[in-house]
Amino acid sequence: MLVLGIESSCDETAAAVADDKKNLLASVVFSQSEHTAFGGVVPEIAARDHLEKVTGIVRETLEKAGIGFEDLDAVAASAGPGLIGGVIVGVMTAKAIAAVRDIPFVAVNHLEAHALTVRLGTDVPFPYLLLLTSGGHCQILIAYGVGRFKRLGATIDDAAGEAFDKVAKMVGLGYPGGPKVEACAARGDPTRFDLPRPMVGKAGCDLSFSGLKTAVRRIVDSYGENGMSDKDRDDLCASFQQAVLDSLCSRLKNGIKIFKKECPDGRFLVVAGGVAANKALRSALEKLAAKNGLTFAAPPMNLCTDNGAMVAWAGVEHRLAGLSDSLDFSPRPRWPLDPSGKR
Ligand code: KG4
Ligand code: ZN
Fold first, then answer.
1. DSSP class of residue 331?
2. Domain regions of the chain by residue span
3. Which of 132, 114, 98, 99 is nearest to 14 (CA)?
């Protein structure tokens, strides 16, 4: 079974082909760069760029995979949540291919695509405990199966990736901030600045990052016009990153207790989403999992931030479960993974 996946929900135009034997035949990611000057993604610019690039990206992906449209068994697209202009571009492209080739169309929830990516390369069985942490979302969930997620907690304000991006902007590192803050943090002293650990010690699995971001802002402002030295900036990045890790790990500890009660046979702690590319986070989670008798698993680094492979694989999982969507499926700017959740 060969499935084409298209991703265009934020600032990556991407496509990939995956099969039902967990192979990735080709994956092409184009990261839009026009947003750097604005310090964040501008939805209208993103949508126009997706429209311009998507056809070429799909063609290049099929060429790399060595196949034609006639070899596809299904086509999937990120159909939300995300910036709606971009989502419409990917969904319309996928629907057009599905209509012309008369093959199933799969409307993939972008968050589910992140959540399932770990199963593309490795054998991670359901159920697993999942930290889903990206630029727009930060949630702790139990993944029971395709389309079956229970949310244990979520951020009550900013997402962790968003906090990384905002801190990067404050200290003059530019967008996207996560990898830049991580690089500075690797050189810095994480104990230099005393920053809050939001929500630590409270019951439940909700998260919060806006207070931490404000605390960083106060420190940056205290340096006044002279600005910070490179050493100050590295130490602040390291202290910020440590606070995020402490906060995530502490909230996950509560999540692990719930997971063990609800799923005594569950064995895996999984991280997904753009922030999962952070090496310090991966090693902190690996330790946390080992301490609690779980095995840590994460997608390969290049499949953490947005890509087409995660969408193609989610398409495969849906088709294996016998699922597809109608061609009148409407793209969704909001689409919670756990419909019973409030946020
Ligand atoms: O999943 P993703 O590509 O897009 C969304 O669905 O939001 O995640 C992008 C986010 C950005 O906020 C980016 O700064 C963050 O992931 N990110 C990182 C790292 N790489 C990407 N955050 C921390 N450390 C990283 N190495
Ligand atoms: Zn994403």
1. P
2. 2-116+303-320, 125-298
3. 114
From ligand 1's centre to the CA of 275, what distance in Å? Answer: 4
**CATH 3.30.420.40 holds for 2-116+303-320:** yes
Is 198 in contact with 247 (CB distance < 8 Å)?
yes
β-pairing verdict for 148-154 and 138-145: antiparallel
Query: Ligand 1: which residues within 6 Å by Cβ?
Result: 10, 134-136, 161-162, 164-165, 176-179, 182, 273-275, 277-278, 305-306
For the stretch 261-287, pLDDT in tens is 999 999 999 999 999 999 999 999 999
pTM more than 0.85? yes
The residue whose CB lies within 8 Å of the most ligand 1 atoms, and thus the one to mutate among 134, 209, 335, is 134
Q: Give the tens place of pLDDT for each residue, 191-238.
A: 999 999 989 999 999 999 999 999 999 999 999 888 899 999 999 999
Residue 335, SS3 per DSSP: coil
Instruction: Specify the residue with its C-alpha closest to ligand 1, atom 1.
Output: 274
pLDDT band at 121 (very low <50, low <70, confident <90, very high): confident
Q: 125-298 has which fold?
A: Nucleotidyltransferase; domain 5 (3.30.420)
